[in-house]
Amino acid sequence: MSDVRFYHQLLAGGRRIERFREAIERTVRPGDVVLDLGTGLGTFALFAARAGAARVWALDAEPVVHAARELARANGFGDVIRWVRGAAPEALPDETFDVILFEDYPIRLFDERVYRLMRAVLARLRPDGGRLLPGAARLVAAPVAGERLRRLLFPLEGAERGAFGLDWRCTRPYVANTPLATAVEPSEVAAEPVALGRVALHPLPACGDLGGGGETAASRSAALTGVALWFDLELDDDLLVSNAPDPGDEPWGPLVLPLDPPLPVEAGTALRLEVAYEPLADGAPGWLRWRVCAGGEERRGHEFAAYPAALADLYEQGGEGAAPERPKDPDP
Questions:
Q1: 52: alpha, beta or left, given left = phi > 0 and alpha = psi -120 to 50?
Q2: What is the Cα–Cα distance from 106 to 18, expressed in whole angstroms?
């Protein structure tokens, strides 16, 4: 649960909030009905009201909406903004929206929860001229290297055989396929980033349109320890927010996909990077898989291999998009 101090920290950063303010003022028209999904302290809802929206629905599952309501009253927008504490899509009002504001994308841009959420929410966007903000995203990846990242990715590196008198090596494949959300320093990026692709966020992109691949070249000699994956959200033609390495005052970093063992490269070595999202039964993106090729060698990873589960666990988990019902055992 995020408290008010968390939102004050976001406001203190300034640049990201200012870019959203500019985009909202360009997007919202007088008389619009606006949905601010995941409103938090209500900052974007206030911007929309100030831009002339006739009605703003501000929805969040957390109790911070009570502080946001006070903030709206204090700024003269108490009659324009309607606050809803609840989770979407169940708590959505019975409205069609001219503008939907949503920025709470996971570090990988889409996971199954957010994909399904947006599929339901976008059904409420006015078909003739409705606008989603941000409206598009670019997925980007780059190889990374460095001892600091290596220690974060593999905390037991060098001690897997013998730590506490036990042999931990059989657990390494799980760690080697577990993505890590962490800050990445510019000095840890070992090649020019690869543009994996650009997707419009409305209509919702197909899982196959996410991810991609491309070529780059090592900028220095290094042992590549992972691939950093991030996105740039397009607010307008000249306005972006990003979770790229060293994004200044942005609060989130990229997702690092491990490479194990490290892939040694010399400066100038040609590299190919590939990242893909495995589709679930309902089309939502599921596991990530990745591959890096350089100098006749390659490293692969697959998020499924990070989970110590038997097939029976997947059948018993159930839920939307999960494995089909487990077949019954044959009669003896």
A1: left
A2: 21
Quote the DSSP letter at residue 206. Answer: P
d(CA 160, CA 248): 36
Domains and CATH numbers, the chain: 4-104 (3.40.50.150), 137-311 (2.70.160.11)
Query: Other CB atoms closer than 10 Å to residue 286's CB: what's the count?
Result: 18
pLDDT in tens, 170-221: 999 999 999 999 999 999 999 999 999 999 999 999 999 999 999 999 999 9
Condensed to tens digits (0 to 9), the pLDDT of residues 273-298 reads 999 999 999 999 999 999 999 999 99
Q: Give the list of residues 6+ apart from residue 113 with CB closer than 8 angstroms, or none.
A: none
For residue 94, what are the β-bridge partners? none
| pTM, to two decimals | 0.92
| CB within 8 Å of 282: residues ≥ 6 apart | 116, 320, 321
Point out which residues pair with 216 in neighbouring strands. Answer: 271
Is residue 22 classed exposed, middle or buried when 0-12, 13-18 and 19+ CB atoms within 10 A define those classes? Answer: middle
For helices 64-74 and 4-13, what crossing angle results, to 10°? 60
Q: Which two tokens stand for residue 146?
A: 């460095």
* Look-up of token digits 């290596």: 150
Q: Which DSSP category does 258 fall into?
A: E
Give the three-state DSSP class for 74. Answer: helix
β-pairing verdict for 136-145 and 222-236: antiparallel
